[in-house]
Automatic annotation (TrEMBL):
Classification via InterPro entries: Dimeric_a/b-barrel, NIPSNAP
Record organism: Agromyces lapidis
Entry-linked Pfam families: NIPSNAP
Protein name in UniProt: NIPSNAP family protein
Annotated ranges, domain NIPSNAP: 10-102
Source organism phylogeny: Bacteria, Bacillati, Actinomycetota, Actinomycetes, Micrococcales
């Protein structure tokens, strides 16, 4: 039995481009789901730091996540979503962490 893996992304975003980052996130929620993951959402600034956002999504295993990454490199919608972020410069940088989720 493989162990699920949850990917935690911490983004440093341009606070003036939060609407663009929201659009980017909405695109990726659907894409992660289509490519086999379970997306838990994007979390935008509310109170506190205005340039920090987060995302969480889970795959059934690290191998399934790696398959997703390979598929995303050539998937036209994924390529377009990435291009959108680059062109709008809504993301300054990001960090990725892998977590072991605990579900009931």
């Amino acid at each position: 039995m493989s162990n699920p893996v949850t990917v935690h992304l911490r983004y440093e975003i341009d606070a003036d481009k939060t609407p663009e980052f929201r659009e980017y996130g909405q695109r990726w929620i659907r894409l992660v789901e289509r490519l086999g993951g379970t997306h838990h959402g994007y979390f935008l600034p509310s109170e506190g730091d205005s340039d920090e956002a987060f995302a969480l999504f889970t795959f059934s295993s690290l191998a399934a996540y790696e398959q997703y990454r390979l598929a995303a490199e050539t998937d036209p919608e994924c390529v377009e979503a990435y291009r959108f972020a680059v062109e709008t410069k809504c993301i300054r940088r990001y960090e990725r962490r892998f977590l072991a989720p605990v579900f009931e």
